[in-house]
Structure formats: C-alpha cells, structure tokens
Amino acid sequence: MAVKVFDKPDGKVRLDAISADPPKGMTREKAEERFATLGQELFDLQDAMFGSRVNSVMVVLQGRDSAGKDGAIKHVVGCLNPRGVIVTSFGVPTLEERQHDFLWRVHRHAPRLGEFSIFNRSHYEDVLVVRVHGLAPKSVWKERFGHIRDFEELLAEHGTVILKYFLHITKEEQEERLLEREEQPDTAWKLNPNDWKERDHWDEYTGAYEDAISRTAAKHAPWTVVPANAKWYRNLVIAESIVEALRGRRKDWEKTLDEMGKSGRAGLDAYRAQVAAKK
Ligand code: AMP
Ligand code: MG
Fold first, then answer.
1. Counting Cβ atoms within 10 Å, is residue 217 exposed (0-12), middle (13-18) or buried (19+)?
2. How far is the CA of 68 from the centre of ligand 2 (A)?
3. Ligand 1 within 6 A of 166 CB?
4. What is the residue range of 232's domain?
5. What is the model's pTM?
6. Ligand 1 contact via 125 beta carbon (within 6 Å)
7. Model pLDDT for residues 33-64, shown as the tens digit of each residue
8. How many domains does the chain contain in total?
C-alpha cells in the first residue's frame, strides 16, 4: 500500500519518497465500491459512538492549497449523520484569536464525547505557514511541537480518537488543479493569487510538514500521508483509516449501550409498576 502511517516520533519522514499516486492495480471503480461499503460501516460506527458517548473523533486535514481538504470533507462527512459532526475551517487568525495562545481557537472546537470534529487546517498551521513566513520567531514556533503533543495527549486521555491526514499531491498535480479552478465557474470562488505565491515556497513547506509529522506522530495521534493525486483514492484511504481506528472500539460502545438500555428499562419498569399500583 502506498499509504504511510506515522505513529511514533520519527526524524526520517521523507515526503519525496512517498508516492502521491494510487498503488498499481487500484482502479477508480474498485475504490468507489469499497468506499460505499466503508461509508455504511462508518455510519453505523458513528451511531454507536454517538449513543454511548465513550469516545469522540478529531480528524485533522492538512495539505497544500488544492490538495483536496474540502473534497475529502465533502465525501467523508457525506457518510455521517450530520447530527454528530462539526466541521471547522481555520483561516488566518482574527485579532481576538491572535490575542490568545495558538491552541485557544482549536481547543474550543475539540469534539464532545460522541461527536466528530473535522478540521480543515488546524493548530498545525502554527508550525507550518507561521514557520515558512516567519510570522513568529523560531524560538516561539519550535516550542509548539511540545505544546501540540501535550494538547493531543490531553484530548486522547479524554477519549478523543485523533486522526491526522496529510493530503500528499505533487507539484504538477497542484499546477493542474490551480489552472482548472480558473476555467471552471463552480470553483471560481476558490481562486486566490496567494495559492501561487505559496507554491513558490514548495520546498520550505515540504520541510515544515516533514518536521511537523515526525515530531507530533504518536500512537494516540497518528499521521497518515495520503496519496492524494487521485481524489477517489484519497477518499478511500481516509475512510478506511477512520473505520480501522474505530472498529475495535465498537464492542465497548455496544456494552455501554447495553447497560444504558438495562438501566433505561429498569426505570420504565419502575414507572409502570407505580402506574399499575395506582389503578
Ligand atoms: P483556505 O484554506 O484556502 O481557506 O485558506 C486559509 C488560509 O489561512 C491559508 O492560507 C492558511 O495558511 C491561513 N492560515 C491558517 N491558519 C493560520 C495561522 N495560524 N496563521 C497564519 N495563517 C493561517
Ligand atoms: Mg485556499
């Protein structure tokens, strides 16, 4: 599988060595069929998680401009019950956000037990764009890796399943996508000259991503490098990875649901007995 998962600190993450294309033998047809099956499983898992409120999920989507963060959200969220999902996009911090520590705006959107929080960009911007553009001195952003590790550990201790995805595209694929946006009226709203400016910093971003991934990868908060040149494969990899991370917890949730059912029924029985005694 071309997918790479980093689940422990590793100083040797090399994005250039990871393919952005689907593996040989994988076709769009196969991927879409499997995605549909996984989507049903994901829906059922979400239902059990929502009811039992033992865990929550935080999905972090990172990637360069046009890497497919929006598209991935559209497809993955499309498998879920909107009742239990909140999608948050993190753009240039507002004045109020800048007057707080960098995790403040993120922590407020961390999921409640039972819920999914999907982040389009995240606290990682504070060690990516901030680093590449020198928006904070090195002495400041360098410390953030430790703050991020502690923050994610805190969330994990609270029952949050943290899944972080880097949508990996090639420079050629990005060029095609940016040019395509100019042609198509339905994506014209995404046109942003800044995307071309950011492209000039391609290699610096590569280095910043490699550091961010290698310094914050953990068992409880793994990074997956998603080959994202093909949108249909990207969707499949993310769905598969979320389902794999949740499947093993289902028994736990069902046990909790069972206990909830027992205590709910005991309450009902007591109520009915009361009513019957009054008759
Ligand atoms: P988009 O995802 O296209 O809506 O763009 C959001 C922009 O906000 C991107 O250029 C990000 O790099 C930028 N951004 C997000 N978080 C931060 C941050 N903490 N500091 C500076 N810029 C940020
Ligand atoms: Mg953009």
1. buried
2. 10
3. no
4. 4-248
5. 0.96
6. yes
7. 999 999 999 999 999 999 999 999 999 999 99
8. 1
